[in-house]
């Protein structure tokens, strides 16, 4: 008796779904020379199959494209594979197709943004950072470049991180590799309006105003020595301020205008403030210097608040005294809290930037404390440090790219410096 022929199983199409965790999926990666129309060519070809797009990422590095898409087939898996491979062959792109099930795995909690900034940024530094993240048990989910000049900045999107311990570990990497590294909460904590409070002398500006005034009084070296000891934390700031101001007794008040005119903004200061204001941030200056110098700078840059000491002037001459309470270490932190309350912002949404020991309370109070070309004692205690001479590098720590800054400048006609020079 002749046996019945065995029936061949019918090809069963896979229904497209975006909700079933174990539904078949295709991860498609195309790589090769970038050109206009690659993405549209892929999806024009895929669309008739009824596939759903579950995830999509594309990056171009020096003209080389990497396009990755996760698809839920609307029919036969093999048909979808044939379609995408045909697109790659037609466009001269390498295609890799991996079958699997379900969407991407959920990202772990402990999301952090790790920003690495170097001038230059060596491969050994990137290796050390990524090795430290892995040793911490965290995962680097995405990497993007925030700037290529005058510094190179990378942002690593990390999950599975303990913020405090990772910050401590990467601070050691930063010191060893001579790069700047900032670790901040990711997600919503990285977005929205903030308050940014800056020190003035040797932060917003390149000078120490008391020394400029002392030069007019012929007491520059004496004052500079006291200033250095105070900034290093060896002297009480209020006492040192009174001692330095006393040397200015009898100085004609007209020198204040001359000093204002001679003050040099730190490279990138205008760009930093201009960009922060475009974002709707509140910007403030808090200085152990003098409001007679600080307020005109704040007015020129459209800064919202300024807090500094006020010199006593009688009959057109400095008396060698200051009026009211001294804006010292505690005063700077109090001003930050006050400005945050006025802006209706929690302290977690504040950023402080400074370089001296009298900035430490302010840096510690802020949600993110940044030591800018600071003394060692300040770098050790701040959340992060910037050791390049460009103040607008702070923008990259907040996740803002150089391209975004330049596009905004171009939109309102602000001149953009040549690539070899920093913004002013």
UniProtKB/TrEMBL annotation:
<dbReference type="InterPro" id="IPR045865">
    <property type="entry name" value="ACT-like_dom_sf"/>
</dbReference>
<dbReference type="Pfam" id="PF21086">
    <property type="entry name" value="ACT_PSP_2"/>
</dbReference>
<comment type="pathway">
    <text>Amino-acid biosynthesis; L-serine biosynthesis; L-serine from 3-phospho-D-glycerate: step 3/3.</text>
</comment>
<comment type="similarity">
    <text>Belongs to the HAD-like hydrolase superfamily. SerB family.</text>
</comment>
<dbReference type="InterPro" id="IPR004469">
    <property type="entry name" value="PSP"/>
</dbReference>
<keyword id="KW-0460">Magnesium</keyword>
<feature type="compositionally biased region" description="Low complexity">
    <location>
        <begin position="1"/>
        <end position="17"/>
    </location>
</feature>
<dbReference type="InterPro" id="IPR023214">
    <property type="entry name" value="HAD_sf"/>
</dbReference>
<keyword id="KW-0378">Hydrolase</keyword>
<keyword id="KW-0479">Metal-binding</keyword>
<feature type="region of interest" description="Disordered">
    <location>
        <begin position="405"/>
        <end position="424"/>
    </location>
</feature>
<dbReference type="Pfam" id="PF13740">
    <property type="entry name" value="ACT_6"/>
</dbReference>
<feature type="region of interest" description="Disordered">
    <location>
        <begin position="1"/>
        <end position="24"/>
    </location>
</feature>
<keyword id="KW-0718">Serine biosynthesis</keyword>
<keyword id="KW-0028">Amino-acid biosynthesis</keyword>
<protein>
    <recommendedName>
        <fullName>phosphoserine phosphatase</fullName>
        <ecNumber>3.1.3.3</ecNumber>
    </recommendedName>
</protein>
<dbReference type="Pfam" id="PF12710">
    <property type="entry name" value="HAD"/>
</dbReference>
<dbReference type="InterPro" id="IPR049148">
    <property type="entry name" value="PSP_ACT"/>
</dbReference>
<dbReference type="InterPro" id="IPR050582">
    <property type="entry name" value="HAD-like_SerB"/>
</dbReference>
<feature type="domain" description="Phosphoserine phosphatase ACT">
    <location>
        <begin position="113"/>
        <end position="183"/>
    </location>
</feature>
<dbReference type="InterPro" id="IPR036412">
    <property type="entry name" value="HAD-like_sf"/>
</dbReference>
